[in-house]
From TrEMBL, chain A:
Active-site residues, Swiss-Prot/TrEMBL: E57 (proton acceptor), D68 (proton acceptor)
EC class of the enzyme, as a word: lyase
Function: The alpha subunit is responsible for the aldol cleavage of indoleglycerol phosphate to indole and glyceraldehyde 3-phosphate.
Organism in which the protein naturally occurs: Cellulomonas iranensis
Catalyzed reactions: (1S,2R)-1-C-(indol-3-yl)glycerol 3-phosphate + L-serine = D-glyceraldehyde 3-phosphate + L-tryptophan + H2O
Record protein name field: Tryptophan synthase alpha chain
Keyword line: Amino-acid biosynthesis, Aromatic amino acid biosynthesis, Lyase, Tryptophan biosynthesis
Automatic annotation (TrEMBL), chain B:
Gene: trpB
Protein name: Tryptophan synthase beta chain
Ranges for domain Tryptophan synthase beta chain-like PALP: 74-385
Residues in the signal sequence: none
CDD domains attached to this UniProt entry: Trp-synth_B
PROSITE patterns the record matches: TRP_SYNTHASE_BETA
Record's catalysed reaction(s): (1S,2R)-1-C-(indol-3-yl)glycerol 3-phosphate + L-serine = D-glyceraldehyde 3-phosphate + L-tryptophan + H2O
Annotated source species: Cellulomonas iranensis
Entry keyword annotation includes Repressor: no
Required co-factors: pyridoxal 5'-phosphate
Class of this enzyme: lyase
A Pfam cross-reference name: PALP
Complexes and interactors: Tetramer of two alpha and two beta chains.
Length: 278, 436
């Protein structure tokens, strides 16, 4: 990964899990800030960590989320309609920084550009955040962010896709720190009946391109899918299934119960995986 | 031409481009604008498109085929029409010429780009095209090319626009396209583009996204401009033929900016030709209800490219407003952003009221019903009339070239309601009448 010697909080967590008494993959859980409310999203993030999520991915609500499917779009739309701001994300990061899981922020790029790339990196680091996942920023356009992340010791999680060429896998791996996010399928976020069969090959290809850690997201929603992915990947990223637990509930308290149950099921799935030796 | 202006233009060019012409500037960047702000999943497809496009450019068979289609199907070259009765509303002694893209097959300039990209799709071996549409013009043009070249076609259209432009929805369906109403976000063009991008990510192996304007990720801004530059190339030759000189100014409306880039391109390297883009000022820039990205926006990233856009303090996209669906978009092509910043083109807002007044003037003086989008360029021409006298330093009559990018058939209901010729919602009123 990055040749710059910057400590990776997410990387350390993934390594600790892989080196533990019963080595396993990490469970990465996504929730958008501001849904069901700003304080509610902090409570939700804590709830999923207590239920077994190892790394938190907090989404900054954005008006044009082109990589997200209907479930996350609905939650984000509600968060924006309720007036959720970019600075609320930093507040929630700060509130859950001591929950026991590194916190990555998932953001579309214009929000960071508008805030100021360096200023955002500085404030995210000060709030206790571990880094950024950037779905619409490829390393080719990320010069400012690469520098700011080094300056403020933040993880840079870029995505690879089944369509990525070997050259692009290598350059994306080179720019990433923490882990590389492998999109299991060509598509947007959402629950799917099966996890794309190209995912395992993509993980292998990304490792062959030099990645130390590769986590798989898009379409993972059920415990058995989490177990299947955890067998070959360093982490399993789940979003829509967790968000839906909150969306479908009649109130926040019921939503948190449903979220805890969904997260616990996924955590069991990850722990039950038969790991493929590397 | 004044020596000073020409010299300044050359100096600007030397500084910016090491002396290279503006007209052939290639992406991915236009100054600090442009680029590729898209998911990694799309990069391979954009690379494939760029390669196919550059190969096609180098292949005379491609340009021959496109030229043949334009001649026998589009109806190119489109005429250049001098409009003296309209010109009286612009200013004394000003000569106004309209480039008649409204007379193209399907009714606007959109067909130029659509046929070019559709031929590329055949070359890439893809079977399906998707596109976004606002007013429906680009959707109709895409559905037309898909029918002609035997491609599956899906058009994404904001739910609100499907209701505003029901006739165009029917046209697309008649042409064999599937029209998908988009019911998320503001339910307009921007949301249709989001949905098209989501479709593209999922189906990129078989599907080409036939983007309708000079925005989006590289290579779209450069490629779509190139497919439209025939507008300016023809107009330049026609005007030279007619008047023996270049225009003093060129005016075009700017939504995403494809018709404007198409006509500007031929004049970019003539520093004495003034270039004016007219954006939708809606209810007025101060009202907050507009689509004036240059007067009321700031640089940022939206839908794959860095350009000027309407955004709030946080960088969330703000809703745009215009009486014209085709100009109702919160961002603008990156090459326009660059031309704006280097001062090569000027961008000004035109309000709904001004556009509709100009719409009526052209109808009444010349017997041409323009698209409401194009009426913004006409209103801009009327604004320019005030300064036109100062353009001429050698006593010639000032010459103004206006791109009439589309015809107004699609806008008859909107215009009739605007001018009080029919009730606002004729269908509902008719139903009420039946109940009586």
């Amino acid at each position: 990964m990055s040749t710059t010697q910057v400590r990776s909080r997410t990387g350390e967590r993934l390594e600790a899990l892989a080196a533990g008494e019963s080595p396993r993959a990490a469970l990465v859980g996504y929730l958008p800030v501001g849904f069901p409310s700003v304080p509610g999203s902090a409570r939700a993030a804590r709830t999923m960590v207590e239920a077994g999520v190892d790394v938190v991915e907090l989404g900054m609500p954005y008006s044009d989320p082109v990589m997200d499917g209907p479930v996350i779009q609905r939650a984000v739309d509600r968060a924006l309609a309720q007036g959720t701001r970019v600075r609320d994300t930093l507040r929630v990061v700060e509130e859950i920084a001591d929950a026991g899981a590194p916190v990555l922020v998932m953001t579309y790029w214009n929000l960071v550009l508008r805030y100021g790339v360096d200023a955002y990196a500085r404030d995210l680091a000060a709030a206790g955040g571990a880094g950024l996942i950037t779905p619409d920023l490829v390393p080719d356009e990320a010069g400012q962010w690469l520098a700011a992340a080094d300056e403020h010791a933040l993880d840079r999680v870029f995505l690879v896709a089944p369509s990525s060429t070997p050259e692009r896998l290598a350059s994306t791996v080179g720019a990433s720190r923490g882990f590389v996010y492998a999109a299991s399928t060509m598509g947007v976020t959402g629950e799917r009946a099966t996890v794309g069969d190209r995912a395992e090959q993509l993980v292998a290809d990304t490792r062959a391109a030099g990645a130390e850690r590769v986590c798989v997201g898009l379409g993972v929603s059920r415990p058995e899918q989490a177990a299947q992915v955890a067998a070959y990947a360093d982490g399993v990223i789940v979003g829509s299934a967790l968000v839906r637990a909150l969306l479908d509930a009649p109130d926040e308290s019921a939503g948190l119960d449903a979220l805890a149950a969904t997260a616990a099921g996924l955590a069991d799935g990850v722990r039950s995986a038969q790991r493929v030796p590397r | 031409m004044t020596a000073g202006r020409a010299q300044e233009g050359r100096r600007l060019r030397d500084v910016l481009l090491g002396g290279g012409p503006l007209a052939t500037h290639q992406g991915p960047y236009f100054g600090e604008f442009g680029g590729r702000f898209v998911p990694e999943a799309l990069i391979a497809a954009l690379d494939e498109l760029e390669t196919a496009y550059h190969k096609a450019l180098a292949d005379p068979a491609f340009s021959d085929e496109l030229e043949r289609l334009h001649r026998t199907y589009t109806g190119r070259p489109s005429p250049l029409t001098e409009v003296p009765r309209f010109a009286r509303h612009v200013g004394d002694g000003v000569r106004v010429f309209l480039k008649r893209e409204d007379l193209n097959h399907t009714g606007s300039h959109k067909i130029n780009n659509v046929l070019g990209q559709a031929l590329l799709v055949k070359r890439m071996g893809k079977k399906r095209v998707i596109a976004e549409t606002g007013a429906g013009q680009h959707g109709v043009a895409t559905a037309t090319a898909a029918a002609l070249l035997d491609l599956d076609c899906t058009i994404y259209m904001g739910e609100e626009d499907t209701q505003r432009q029901a006739l165009n929805v029917a046209r697309m369906q008649l042409l064999g396209a599937t029209v998908v109403p988009v019911a998320i976000g503001s339910r307009t063009l921007k949301d249709a583009i989001n949905e098209a991008l989501r479709d593209w990510v999922a189906n990129v192996d078989t599907t080409h996204y036939l983007l309708g304007t000079v925005t989006g990720p590289h290579p779209f801004p450069e490629m779509v401009r190139d497919f439209h530059k025939v507008i300016g190339d023809e107009a330049r030759a026609q005007l030279l033929d007619e008047t023996g000189r270049l225009p003093d100014a060129v005016a075009a409306c700017v939504g995403g900016g494809s018709n404007a880039m198409g006509i500007f391109n031929a004049f970019l390297d003539d520093p004495d030709v003034r270039l004016f883009g007219f954006e939708a000022g809606g209810s007025g820039v101060d009202s907050g209800r507009h689509a004036a990205r240059f007067s009321g926006g700031s640089p940022g990233v939206l839908q794959g490219t860095r350009s000027y856009l309407l955004q709030d303090e946080d960088g969330q996209t703000l809703p745009s407003h215009s009486v014209s669906a085709g100009l109702d978009y919160p961002s603008v092509g990156p090459e326009h952003a660059w031309l704006h910043d280097i001062g090569r083109a000027q961008y000004r807002p035109v309000t709904d009221d001004e556009a509709m007044d100009a719409f009526r003037v052209l109808c009444r003086t010349e017997g041409i019903i323009p698209a409401i989008e194009s009426a913004h360029a006409l209103a801009g021409a009327i604004q320019l009339g005030r300064e036109a006298a100062a353009w001429s330093t050698d006593g010639h009559e000032p010459v103004l070239l206006v791109n009439l990018s589309g015809r107004g058939d699609k806008d008859v209901a909107t215009a009739a309601a605007w001018f009080g010729l029919i009730e606002d919602e004729p269908v509902v009123k008719a139903d009420e009448g039946e109940q009586l």
